[in-house]
Every structure is written in C-alpha cells, then in structure tokens.
Amino acid sequence: MADNMDRAQRSRTMSKIRSSGNRTTELSFIKLLRESSLKGWRRNVKLAGRPDFIFLHERVAVFLDGCFWHGCPRCDLRPKSNIRYWKAKIAGNVARDRTIAKQLEACGWSVVRIWEHQIRRRPAEAIARLSRKFSKPSGAWVARPSARP
User: Fold this and answer.
1) Long-range contacts of the stretch 84-93 (C-beta < 8 A, 24+)
2) How far apart are CA 123 and CA 117, in angstroms?
3) Regarding the domain with residue range 21-131, which homologous superfamily does it belong to in the CATH classification?
4) Which of 23, 27, 63, 32 is nearest to 47 (CA)?
5) What is the pTM of this model?
6) What are 25-38's pLDDT values in tens digits?
7) In the chain, where are the structural domains located?
8) Helical segments of the chain, H only
9) Contact 111, 101 (CB under 8 A)
10) 65-86 pLDDT, tens per residue?
C-alpha cells in the first residue's frame, strides 16, 4: 500500500507517537518475580542502557528484550515490508545491546537478557536464569518454585 503522505508529513506524524514501552511484558515479569518470591528489584533506574529491572545489592541488570525489536534468533520474526530499513534498525539494536552489556559488565554489573517469548512460554526457565546470577545460595534472593506450569 502506497503512503499518502510525503516524507516530511510522515516524519511529523510519527514524531507525535509516544511509546508505551514494553509494559505488558514488564507486568508479566513483575508477576513472575512476585510468584517466585524474588525480592530486592527496582525499576526505572538510570543506568547505562536503562535496564528494565535491577537488583542493586547483587548488581544484576535485567533487560526484557522483545523478540522482534532485538532480533530473537529463536522466533526469527522478520519484517514484511521496508525490509532494508528494519534489518538495519534491528541490527543496530543488537549492536547497542552488546555495547551496553559490555559497559555494565565493566562497571561490575551482571547482565541478564530475557526474551519476551521466555516470559510467556517458559517462565520458570527465565526465573532460573536470573537466580543463577545471585551470589547468595539461599534467602530472599533465591526463587521458590513457581505455581505456574
């Protein structure tokens, strides 16, 4: 379908659209954290890359990556139009993710990237991956088995 706006009009229109973030994914993950009794997490902390969650005492930064936007190799979601633009955009996101992870690790943070599909399809695996980053073998930092299947 042809665009009925010129480039400047399209740019102006698109600049007015504000993202709501990955709110549903984050809310699902919060529910998982609570069900697993993982404590000590914070959101909206101004660290490099703006992690979705951090565990300050453990120095763990958690990023919840959307399968399309961050180029999930398992889901392999490919754009159907404007392919050249989207390939470059997603490749840039992946490169930025690597750079941010290196910056945080250089500052002593552990970085955990959890795919959107893991939260939906294999939540126990996502929580287990996160729990392995914690230094304390027991207590508030360790997840209890979730009631979810």
Assistant:
1) 93/69
2) 9
3) VSR Endonuclease (3.40.960.10)
4) 63
5) 0.75
6) 888 899 999 998 88
7) 21-131
8) 7-15, 23-35, 83-106, 116-121, 123-131
9) yes
10) 888 888 888 887 888 888 898 8
